[in-house]
Write a structure and sequence with these properties.
GO terms for molecular function: ATP binding. Keywords: ATP-binding, Nucleotide-binding. This is ATP-binding protein. With 81 residues, the protein is of the alpha+beta class. It has helices at residues 28-31, 42-49; strands spanning 4-10, 13-20, 53-58, 64-70. The chain has a single domain (4-70), classed as Heat Shock Protein 90. It contains 2 helices and 4 strands.
Length: 81
């Protein structure tokens, strides 16, 4: 299986898309609720922890794309120790 990752800025948001040839995402609702110790969905868990939105859709050319959108946040100054 070939996976095609893409990252871009769109309307000041970071958009990450990962596409593959499998035209389904069984158990998406379950995987999206994964925790940090789960084997599947850890990356989706991190996106959601940072306030991101995760969706998926079927591509016209076949397969699916999982899309994560992260809003910008105000940077906090780093305190030197």
């Amino acid at each position: 299986m070939t996976i095609h990752p893409v990252a871009a800025l769109e309307d000041e948001c970071l958009v990450i898309e990962v596409s593959d040839p499998v035209p389904a995402f069984s158990r998406f609702d379950e995987v999206i609720k994964a925790g940090p110790e789960d084997e599947r969905g850890r990356g989706l868990h991190l996106i959601r922890q940072f306030g991101g939105e995760v969706t998926w859709f079927l591509r016209e050319s076949g397969g699916k794309t999982v899309r994560a959108v992260l809003q910008p946040c105000e940077a906090q100054p780093f305190a030197a120790q």
